[in-house]
Specification:
The protein is mostly helical. It folds into 3 domains: 27-105, no CATH class; 162-253, no CATH class; 259-331, no CATH class. Helix content is 51%, strand content 5%. The chain has a two-stranded antiparallel sheet. The longest helix is centred in the middle third of the chain and has 24 residues, at 136-159. Bound molecules: zinc ion.
Length: 332
């Protein structure tokens, strides 16, 4: 049977810890014969920062446990300390014992061995007893180091690639040019890779022109700033920086990870199926762009696109006239 969901107090992004004064923690009476008055002590917040105080109930909760419980992260835990989740700690007694106790209970038992299995006989060689680690530490140490080793190798592999180097050099060339730094080394690497694709004398001159458009020695310039700069230019102005523009376009289309390019390959299979084999390269490119940038495609105004198409020539204008917003509803 599924356990009943506990009632938990509503918590925000951090524990509620009213300061006193202005907040006055109510004093409660405990015991029948020897009545003692006790109240919540505000200095507990300093010692146990996870305490969440509920003013209506005059009770303390564990903020971390309540949050985890309400996000269904403690579903598999059987020995929940419900006092700190649903009823709240109201006693005011032995807080210096109770709170550290809750702190040290992590709902996780200390690491142990998995069930000891005998290796299959076909793997046995000689008569020696099979070796089994003596402590859980011995058992987990090689696994831990294996994981650590895998992580470091993966990170090194990711950045030590020729493709990544090209990307890095192109980006640094443009960034250093606009930041007013020396870019000769990067230019050399780019020239080695792209060989005859660029006119390097022209590129060098144009990089200097590009540099003149940015504040000198400003190291905070980012690639996005350069993008904005090129976007604001007219096509004729861009023609003046043709080589830099081409290099920048290359930089923008190099996929920094292979996930993007792999995703577009899988999309290709969906867009160009066996049923539309005759699709030409231009049309395929356009449809792929629309498909890959689905978010932007959804935001396109159909009326505006239709009208722009119509205004392309007098002939279409005569046939279609002008579309207005109500035309779309008629199509539905
Ligand atoms: Zn807790």
């Amino acid at each position: 049977m599924k356990p009943k969901k506990l009632q938990v107090p509503v918590v925000g992004t951090e524990p509620h810890q009213p300061s006193s004064p202005p907040f006055k923690f109510p004093r409660r009476e405990f015991g029948k014969k020897n009545v003692v008055k006790r109240s919540f002590l505000p200095q507990w917040f300093q010692r146990w920062p996870w305490l969440h105080y509920c003013e209506d109930m005059d009770a303390a909760f564990c903020f971390i446990c309540v949050k985890a419980y309400s996000e269904n992260k403690l579903n598999s835990v059987s020995n929940l300390e419900t006092t700190y989740i649903t009823s709240g700690y109201t006693d005011g007694k032995d807080a210096c014992v109770q709170f550290p106790n809750h702190e040290s209970s992590r709902y996780i038992s200390p690491p142990g061995f998995p069930r000891r299995r005998k290796a299959p006989r076909r793997f046995e060689e000689g008569d020696a007893e099979s070796v089994f680690p003596e402590t859980p530490e011995d058992y987990y140490r090689p696994i831990y180091f294996e994981a650590l080793d895998l992580i470091t190798t993966s990170i090194t592999d990711r950045f030590n690639r020729p493709g990544y180097n090209v990307f890095h050099n192109v980006q640094n060339l443009i960034l250093k040019a606009v930041q007013g730094l020396d870019y000769e080394a990067e230019l050399k690497c780019v020239a080695n890779f792209y060989t005859t694709d660029f006119n390097y004398e022209l590129l060098r001159t144009q990089l200097e022109i590009l540099r003149a458009n940015f504040t000198p020695n400003q190291t905070s310039v980012k690639i996005t700033d350069v993008t904005e700069f090129f976007k604001a230019m007219t096509p004729v102005q861009r023609e003046l920086l043709s080589e830099v523009c081409q290099l920048f376009q290359l930089l923008l289309v190099i996929p920094a990870t292979n996930a993007v390019s792999e995703r577009s390959f899988s999309a290709l299979r969906r867009v160009k199926t066996y049923l539309c084999l005759t699709m030409a390269q231009d049309r395929l490119n356009h449809i792929m762009t629309l498909h890959i940038y689905r978010g932007l495609t959804d935001d396109l105004s159909l009326i505006e696109s239709a009208n722009r198409f119509i205004h392309g020539s007098d002939h279409t204008e005569q046939i279609f006239g002008k579309f207005v917003a109500t035309d779309i509803k008629k199509c539905d």
